[in-house]
Amino acid sequence: MAFRIIVLINFIVAFASYGVLASDCDQAPPEVNGNFDACCSFPNITDPVIDKKIQEMVKTLSLEGKDSYSVVCKVAQVIFNDMKLVKDNTVDKDAFQKMVDSYVTKDVEYWRQPLKDAYDHCQKTLMSDLAKVTDFFSKPPYNIKKEDCDVQYVALFTCIHLDSFANCPTAAWKPTNEKVCTTMKTWFGKCGTDFNGIKKIISG
């Protein structure tokens, strides 16, 4: 799973809180649209062969006139499938954990458990809301139809990224703008990293 694929940023700013929200969670602050990598140093979990395939895929889909949301969805689907993380049409926990153990090097060992915890959290919450997630992304401005792309993969990818950010280890916390980064981290940590808040960020 390549955390640094820039096209995924379209969805990363689209996830936030779920369930019963505190009053200060009703509207996302503008800072949540900031650059995550400018605050938290994520591990470089990537495969050169898959990265190259994705780069070519993005070029081809763009030339075919596919919009960015469709491209992002297809990219996420390819990442999970090509890294052999999918079993029975969903991301397999054992495969994901083995991937983390394989790619997280000793110098960033502190990322191992947060990534596994993020998967557990996101898999549980997203799978229970998958029908809502699929329906939401089938409508404008996304217009991603189930027969064209399975949105569960980009949703899971995004949720894992957000949950990891909200629980960014101290050793990885390297904010370039302390105020903006702290606001982002605090809001995501308090208000959640799941599906329902997506409308609040988009409309915010």
From TrEMBL:
<dbReference type="GO" id="GO:0005576">
    <property type="term" value="C:extracellular region"/>
</dbReference>
<comment type="similarity">
    <text>Belongs to the PBP/GOBP family.</text>
</comment>
<dbReference type="InterPro" id="IPR052295">
    <property type="entry name" value="Odorant-binding_protein"/>
</dbReference>
<keyword id="KW-0732">Signal</keyword>
<feature type="signal peptide">
    <location>
        <begin position="1"/>
        <end position="22"/>
    </location>
</feature>
<keyword id="KW-0813">Transport</keyword>
<protein>
    <submittedName>
        <fullName>Uncharacterized protein</fullName>
    </submittedName>
</protein>
<keyword id="KW-0964">Secreted</keyword>
